[in-house]
Amino acid sequence: MTYNVDGVLPDSLVTELDPGTNLLLSGPPMSGKRRVLLELLARGEADSEGSVVVTSRDPATEVAEEYEDVLGGESRFLRLVDCVSSQSGSATGGDRVRYVSSPSDLTGMGIEFSEVAQNAGDAGVSGLRVGFDSLSPLLMYVDLQRLFRFLHVFTSQIQSQNWLGVFSVDPESHDDQTINTISQLFDGVLELRLTDDGDREARVRGVTASPTGWVALS
Questions:
Q1: pLDDT at position 49, please?
Q2: d(Cα 214, Cα 191) in Å, to the nearest integer?
Q3: What is the pLDDT of residues 176-214, one digit of tens each?
Q4: Residue ranges making up the domain that contains 33
């Protein structure tokens, strides 16, 4: 089994990813990181796969709406771990959302993710795509060493279960050493950028035989 990403990314970049792959999605603000992340997750619905989104930036309701907009319909299996709504007092009930007190509650995040992953197994989901939007708010709350340890466990769980993980980060919000340290935990990086004309381009390294060049995204 592989995780198909054809139709989301240009074929000249990558068309499929191996089970257990953890991908860092890196790009500046306005480069459409979350849209690409959700497209990568929603692509699995056609292959009877499920999706989990950990959101540390926007409420789960907003992310779920955007996911199903990308999908063009209702999801077969979508679960969310919401790290922002409890703080703002906007948390609501619902079977597919679990709430964590804040982006600094890494322990709670790990517990809720494990519960959600168990739900996927119980639902007979054949493969699971995990999106994390975004690592940047976490770095505002916790130190790099603590986040590194958390991500090591998190990505190892994805790897051992043969899932696919896509974690977004804004490299312009952090120094190079921070980004380089985090990057060590990932099998590859999908980089996005905006040209001077405002067009989007992407390149991939680490999960292809050799790093790709920059390719236009539609």
A1: 96
A2: 9
A3: 999 999 999 999 999 999 999 999 999 999 999 999 999
A4: 3-216
Q: What is the pLDDT of residues 108-140, one digit of tens each?
A: 999 999 999 888 888 889 899 999 999 999 999
Could you tell me which residues come within 8 angstroms of residue 205 by beta carbon, excluding any fewer than 6 positions away?
A: 188, 189, 191, 211, 212
CA atoms of 199 and 214, how far apart (whole Å): 12
Query: How many residues are recorded in the chain?
Result: 218
Q: In CATH, what number is assigned to the domain containing residue 128?
A: 3.40.50.300
Contact present, 149 and 157 (Cβ < 8 Å): no
> What is the number of domains present in the chain?
1
CA 35 to chain centre: 10
pTM above 0.85, yes or no: yes
CA distance 83 to 175: 24
Angle made by CA atoms 73, 6, 208, in degrees to the nearest 5: 140
For residues 54-76, b (16+ Cβ closer than 10 Å) or e, as one string?
Answer: bbbbebbbebbebbbebbeeebe
